[in-house]
Amino acid sequence: DSGIATPVTLKVDKYGFYLHWVDQNNEMDMLDIAIIRDTRTGKYAKIPKDSKLQSFVTMGSQDSLEDKTVTICYGSDFVNVNFINFCTTRAEIAQHWTEQLFQLAYNLIQLNTSTTMFLLKAHTKLTLTVDKLEKIPVKNIIKMFTQNKEDRKRVEKALDISGFPSGKSDVVPLSKFQFEDFFNFYKSLTQRSDVEKVFEGIVGSSKRRLMSVSQFVDFLNKTQRDPRLNEILYPYANEARAKDIINQYEPNKCNANKGQLSFDGFLRYLMSEDNPIVAISKFELSDDMDQSLAHYFINSSHNTYLTGIYEYFYNYF
């Protein structure tokens, strides 16, 4: 509709977080797959109305332009929706992208994942913004975490504590900003005093910085476990289970070998997929939503469908 068509290379990052594309000038743009509402091809795709533009974007096989077009509907909600269109060389390519992007956009486990995965998503977005020299502009990091001047000061301080430059025109080499580096920056930024308070309550002293296996087992059973759960289907944690978690999340291998959990390891566990708010199995339970709208009852207030004179009298009284 804008009358502009640009040749691009379209990709999805390896985690399935972002759809991103690069043009011939090496300029990159991206779209968060989580805000994709629908993907369309064939007769439901949006093709250019202008004949010259149609001719420009038509390429490849003899398939119709509709069949070779992928229309992506995206937005923060289902009302304020925007569209972006990609034209491919073959219909099967368009069909493949349409199906796969839709599956990623409505992957409930991906949309309701752990805190660590959301941090990985933020890190992935930053790594996609690297310049030609494989460096991340510091201004992109600051922009991601700030809304006002006070936020900016906190982010700059966290960057300094983490050993990164904090100037607006500075850059960070991608090789020195891997996820572990980003996670350390996150800890400096948030300070997680809430988690530290819980940790100290378990170990019994602010001076003692390591949690034993028995203390961790008590935490898993008495604090984290829902007492309403069936003991047979959801057995209590034992020392073997506690050691498995410690081995997985304790960054210091010497501590892990001794069966000890540091604050850093405890934080990583709480933010992991092993400590979800909602059990992953619950997301696999879904109703059949492939039928026509008339096949379903709509649970709604009677005020929802008042119109005209009825609405006037309702509001009046």
TrEMBL record:
Instruction: State whether keyword Lipid metabolism applies.
Output: yes
Q: Lineage of this protein's species? A: Eukaryota, Metazoa, Ecdysozoa, Arthropoda, Hexapoda
Q: Which residues form the Phosphoinositide phospholipase C beta 1-4-like EF-hand domain?
A: 119-189
Gene Ontology terms, MF aspect:
phosphatidylinositol-4,5-bisphosphate phospholipase C activity
Per the record, its GO cellular-component terms are: cytoplasm
Looking at the record's lineage, which domain of life comes first?
A: Eukaryota
Per the UniProt entry, the Enzyme Commission number(s) are 3.1.4.11
Kindly give the Pfam families that the UniProt entry links to this protein. PH_14, PLCB1-4-like_EFh
PLC-beta PH domain mapped to chain residues: 1-112
What is one process in the GO biological process aspect for this record?
A: G protein-coupled receptor signaling pathway
Under which main EC class is this enzyme filed?
hydrolase
Q: Which UniProt keywords apply?
A: Hydrolase, Lipid degradation, Lipid metabolism, Transducer
Name of the protein described by the UniProt record: phosphoinositide phospholipase C
